[in-house]
Fold each of these.
Amino acid sequence: MTKAPRPADRTRGPSPLPAYLTSAVLARTADEGARVALVMLAAQRADSTALGGALVAALMIPHVAAAPVVGVLADSVRRRRLFHGGAVVLYGAALLTLALLVGVTHDAVALALAAAAGCVAPLLTGGLTSLLGDLLSKERLTRAFSADAVSYNLAGICGPAVAAALGTAMSAAAALAVLGCGAMTGGALLFSLRLSPRTGRQAAPGKARPADLTRGVAELMRNAPLRSVTWGSAVGQLGVGALPVVSVLLAAEYHAPWVTGGLMTVFAVGALAGSLSYAWRPVGRRRPELVVLWGLVATGIPLSMVPLTGHAGAAAALFAAAGFCTGPLFSALLASRERYAPAAVRTQIFTLGAGLKSTFAAAGAGAAGALGGLGAAPLMLGTAACQAVAAALALVLLRRRPSGPAGSATGPAADLPHSSRSAPDTEDRGIT
């Protein structure tokens, strides 16, 4: 079998990070902005908010449902540059087509196209992040993951803003078309990345089996660091997902309409600042799973203090502080996935993890909406409690030994990532 070149060998010459980050920002901005643009487009063309909601649901549900499948395909495909770049281009083309079809053709056609685009979407989030380990050397990965976390933050801020601004100034169709073209440009940039084709046993094009769909899930259950950061961060998203609903209740309580969107904006800006700070000085890089654990605790503290304030400005400052703590948390989460995921299922781990976070965030939003009658203070305390529970769960899962089937690794070695138990894999990937 031909040995895969080390990451350090593949990064001689100009850094691939600028091209990667530009592509990631364009693709993820399109993904975030499409949710707003689709609702606006359905309202403008079809005078139907119900259609807009259905389109967003059709786009979002496959983020979770398709994650295992696209992860398996990405882990088995030989030419990743073409696969990932083509997927992002197709996503952008789907948005561009939706800009032309929504309100013009039958709703079922538009919904089917949105669902098809959603099936590709996991490759825009976790799928792209999984490429960093093959693009950069080990020494540059921690800061690269922080920079990648910044791309998520920027997309979360810019996507809805671009969609709303263009949708109001021009039309929602124009906004969706611009976002689609941006994603296609990002996909084209991925074609320039230096990703060596997989060779030998690394690639098995066309040989992905149904059993492969469970390999990533099994790894998330038996690999202690991955298990800890994945399920801990997912439970934490229950609270984060509830924050938009809580913000609406706080706006009514403070008699300040700007709070409805303002609190989430400062939370996102705080997360951006936290990611940049962690990129500048990444602490705890040897044990990123511990950074995730403490990040959950730190996020919950300012959120728990919001009910004690009676002023919108103080609440905004606390939201910004909580957001700041999520920056290092998310950067360390990405680094943990890369460090502890076996190479054979690495993309599955990234796409599954992203899908789980989206699922728990949606569940948190739904629960907050159903419990809205309780008022802002109890729900705010509930969001903070989610972070404490998530941290406790992460700690338990990190320390508990896996009880695998007979013949599987047990004891301390069982808690080590596969890359630490496999000498060839450790050498090839440059991971210790």
Amino acid sequence: MNRFGIGFDGAVVNASNKSKFKKRFNYVGFGAVSYLISAIAMVFQAKSYSAEFEGNNLQKKFPNAFLMTVTNHPYFGGGIKIAPDEKIEMHNLKLVVFQKNNLIQLIGNLLTIVFGSFQYKMKSVYNKTLKDDFSLNVDSKQLAQIDGQVLNENSFQLNFSRTTYPFWIPTKSEK
């Protein structure tokens, strides 16, 4: 897994995948536009939800979570930096939670990731680099996605851990 997202994230991927225009945009090299169009629509349609995090000797409740993602790299699809300080070589996972206190604040927060990656400076955005196992619980039914594959709307009780797998990459002499 590179990225797991729940709430707004899952709703955007779901709407984009169902879009009539996605294949056309992908064909001309503008696949990210279908995500942008879906994101604009979902800002007004997706609802906030209650979520709980437990791990790293910490418990945290998010009463108005809107977008919750666990990632090991900085980007959403289309090159948008959701976790600007994350590096795939670091072997960590990053939890980023956007909370929705009101629509104006939420739109401002979402624009920060499009135009400058300043989201960590905002009070309604929580981020934590995680080196140990942790869990997330969401009691209400939400759409989610794993690496762009939509999961059915459901409540979630998730446990995350990191595992390294060896890969064999052939050298030029082995090809």
